Amino acid sequence: MRLATVPSLILTLGVLATASSAFAQSPGCCEPTTRDVEKVGGNLGNQNYSSLRQINKANVKQLGAIWLNEIEGGITTGTNQSTTIVKDGVLYIESALGKLHAVDGVTGQTRWVYPGKGTITRRGPAVGQGLVYTIATGNTVVALNKDTGQVVWEKAINGYGNVAKVAVVYHDGLLYLGTNDGSRGAALALDASNGDLKWYFFGIPGAGEFGYDTWGGGPQSGATPWIHPAVDPELNLVYWTFGNARGGSSQDGSQRPGQNLFANSIVATDAKTGAYKWHFQSVHHDIWDMDNVNAPVLADVTVKGQPRKAVIYGSKTAMWYILDRRDGTPLIGIDEKPVPQDARQNTWPTQPYPRGDAWQSLCVTDSGPSRAVPNFKRGCLYAAHWDEPILSIPGQGGGGDWSHVSFSHSTKLVYTGQAYVAVAHSRSEASNGLRPLGTEMTGGIVAIDPATNKIRWKKDMPYSLAHGNGILTTASDLLFIGQPDGNLLGMDALNGRELWRFQTGAAISASPITYEVNGEQYMAIYAGGTGIPYGDSAQRGDHLWAFKVGGTVPQAAEPTKPVIRRPISAAAVEGSAVNNTVTLNRTWSGGQPGAAESDAVNAMAPQHLRVPAGTTVTFLNPAGNALPHCATQFFEGLFNIGPLQPGQAAQYTFSQPGEYFYNDCTSPRSTGKVVVY
After folding, report:
1. Residue 182's pLDDT band (boundaries 50, 70, 90)?
2. Residue 614 above 50 pLDDT?
3. 49, 68, 89, 337, 516 from 527: Cα distances, Å
4. Is the domain covering 13-536 a CATH 2.60.40.10 domain?
5. CA-CA distance, 660 to 676, in Å (whole number)?
6. Where are the domains of the chain?
């Protein structure tokens, strides 16, 4: 049912045809939301911007909660990545248990609950044609009567990848959604009245299709569209972002020479037929899991004095690729620059760098939020790697990852949350790359002028804000964003100054929304939490909150703060049980150091040592090891022991309570910690 093929070309920018101006009578992409928010991202352009202005800088300090609905009865587990939507004063929110709840936006009373088909991770429903659309287990798309919750239709969509971890988009009788985590995924369009598949577009082309020969005859896997698209009805285009290349693995490109289309690309398709129109690939031959899969943002901007129709695309690389959404050509300029090469990896000779500002350093540093864990070989973005891990930044969980972006019609700026996460890549690293144990995972907010791609302001924050932490901006130049510590923040969109905060009681991995009922402005947020990137240290919940000026419902108790350093999860071993000795580069097994030398991440024995202040700890490189080893403490810099030859030992006395990470100089993956009490 893929309805278009084009000549086989290998291009960074492929343009088949300029989009027509058909369907100009349809609602546009980019009108601000007002009383309703019918999809994740607000309007079809994913701008997360509202023209409501009753809540403003003069009264935001009086903004307070009016109700709290613990939609699942107060659960404290699960994965919550869904954003609330609202239609006619009723909020719709998906829960971690696979349910969908309809809640009165004024009173907080539950109207109805769809029970779902079991636990599933989702990112938001949509409304249209009097129905609310969601997904369920078994690759199932479900349509419910928005007023009663009665199932109108449900349809299993098999053979195109996994239907999960995505938000649904409704427009003009069609549902648009992507698939994820399979070996081959597709962008899908369904008939919104019955769920029938109308068309599909695979991220990996089939034989004879445009882009097929960009895989060099090697294994084809990945390129899944695991986030919701943008839609421009006037141009009759849908904009999809496709994920990483995984043929071989996400870090091993040795068997898939070529650019690997449409991995790491934005692709514009015909909204009615799915026919390819144009694409732009932001990372060629990805071996870093650096897919820029963020929901693209459409905006009308003035560039060099001329009004232009832009699509703003990017995420993990911490750069915006600002393109003409009619044909994919760069509006400001994007330069192909030479990058480090390794013939074994079939690395592509150049990568596209947008003109303008990156949001963060593109190389690891000695200080600040991009600082490197010691002893790793260092690199920058696109550092070529093979067997030796090379530490670079942004990592695959950094940059903007899948934060929800906002474009303000008032300030003309685009805002995103971001994360500072350095990652060590080698072709055999698990989980798309190693985030070293003990590394810090913080973040920030950045405001960019899309007319120049220059930073207007940037603010570092204590937590990663790159995983569903959506930004809402309003006509009163307010900016709202939730944090993993449960705080919902209100800020000045002109400069990032904090004006208001409210503790919701659980981690936030969703976008705030604002809506209007009977002429009064409200705001809502779902605080549920997810394990990315802080694991179980991020408090889970099921807290749907609503706010208005003058609200008096008290804030929640402050939850335990997320652990921002990549944790060591090994059980603590008391120093007295091991003669206050750590055996370097041996794993801990059966209450004693293992028999073999190891470069595993847990190869310190014991990996988690617990001692009272004043204890002298011995670091031993056992005689049975073949290589010299070290214990380099970071980031406090207390000691740098070694290299110790096999059979040698050295000591350090811990005088102050705290948590002290250290790693090895020969095998920097291997990391341990000493907790002093």
Report:
1. confident
2. yes
3. 20, 10, 20, 42, 21
4. no
5. 8
6. 13-536, 573-676
Alpha-carbon span 135 to 112, nearest angstrom: 17
CATH level 3 topology of 573-676:
Immunoglobulin-like (2.60.40)
Give 566's contacts (C-beta < 8 A, 6+ positions apart).
Answer: 435, 436, 437, 438, 439, 440, 441
Q: C-alpha dihedral over 622, 626, 628, 632, to 10 degrees?
A: -60
Res. 372: pLDDT tops 80: yes
Q: Among 337, 326, 406, which Cα is nearest to 48's?
A: 406
With CA atoms as reference, report the closest residue to 435 among 485, 401, 486.
Answer: 401
Tokens of 650: 């050295």
Residue 60: count other Cβ atoms within 10 Å of its Cβ: 17
Least confident interval from 160-164, 230-234, 427-431:
427-431
Asked if residue 9 has pLDDT above 60, the reply is no
**pLDDT for the residue numbered 2:** 46
- Cα gap 672→607, rounded to integer Å: 5
- pLDDT score of 202 more than 70: yes
Would you give the DSSP letter of residue 605? E
Find out whether 477 and 494 touch, Cβ atoms under 8 Å. Answer: yes
- Average pLDDT taken over every residue of the chain: 95
Other C-beta atoms lying within 10 Å of the C-beta of residue 355: 14
Full DSSP string of 27-75: --S-PPB-S-B-BTTSSTT---EE---SS-TTTGGGEEEEEEEETTSS-
Q: How far apart, in whole angstroms, are the C-alpha atoms of residue 472 and residue 513?
A: 7
Tokens 């000493």 appear where?
Answer: 674
Task: Give the list of residues 6+ apart from residue 209 with CB closer than 8 angstroms, or none.
Answer: 2, 5, 6, 8
What 3-state class would DSSP assign to 230? strand
Residue 345 three-state SS: helix
User: Residue 390 — very low, low, confident or very high, per pLDDT cuts 50/70/90?
Assistant: very high
Beta bridge partners of 662: 633, 672
Which distant-in-sequence residues (6+ apart) come within 8 Å of 609 by Cβ? 572, 573, 575, 578, 580, 582, 617, 672, 673, 674, 675
pLDDT at 345 over 90: yes
How many CB atoms lie under 10 A from the CB of residue 21? 10
d(CA 551, CA 518): 17
